[in-house]
Amino acid sequence: MDIREKVNEYYLVVKEIMNINTLTDIKARGLLASKMGCYLRLVNGRKIFKKIFGKNVFIFGAAPSLEEDILNLKGILVSNREKISIISVNGATKALISHNIFPDIVVTDLDGDFDSIFKAATEGAIVVVHGHGDNILALSKYLSKIGPYSICTTQLENEECIVNLGGFTDGDRALFLAKELGASKIFLIAMDFGEIVGKYSKPWLKKHVYAWSDKRKKFKIAKKLISKYLREFQGKLYTLGKSRIAELKIGHLNYLEVENIIDK
What we know:
This protein is α/β, with parallel strands linked by helices. It has one domain. The protein contains 10 helices and 10 strands. The chain has helices spanning about 5-15, 20-35, 40-50, 65-80, 90-100, 115-120, 135-145, 170-180, 215-230, 255-264, and strands at about 55-60, 85-90, 105-110, 125-130, 150-155, 185-190, 195, 210, 235-240, 250-255. The chain has an 8-stranded parallel sheet with strand order 5-4-3-2-1-6-9-10, with helices on both faces. Strands 7-8 form a two-stranded antiparallel sheet.
């Protein structure tokens, strides 16, 4: 499937569920293209490929189970660090760093805790910054600071060095990134696209809350996009720990089982 077909299929899924403004998406893509040179895309693109290709990729979302999952997996992450790459989804970065776990990659549209995202970048993470119609102000505010550590993505067709790797929310974009760049196995932790939004999802949340209307719609889109490509993940995609994704037939592992899977 070429990029035009991918974008068309994506918009068919999205527009079934919620209205998005294509013109502001185009504006966001143009802003990224004007600020990000292709040299940075090349250098950071090579780094991110090395972090993912052939690796066991652990993707941490910000579901309510996040802190418990980190505590239960920390020993496995440390003892198997050479075999593992860690992707943090936006706000999950703050929780990981608070437990002295620094991600290799952060996937974000810059509405998580920026200080944590920037700290991860200065410790070696590549930041995958997504531009869309609703985050133009955040891009304008933070891109000059985070740009040198980043590659940038769009939900439209590619423009210059701004690419579309698939996905809609930060969580499913992280999943499609790992797939596109050749992860050996992918483990989803604290990612359930469920009714409760974890407190690390947004900087202003002080506790877990029920998902608001737009959030529920975005979760529904994410699940639909994943389900469309589930066959392509056959045998290498698992949920891990306390969270599962309802409605999707994805293999599930407990904390004790994952180490055996990593070694295979």
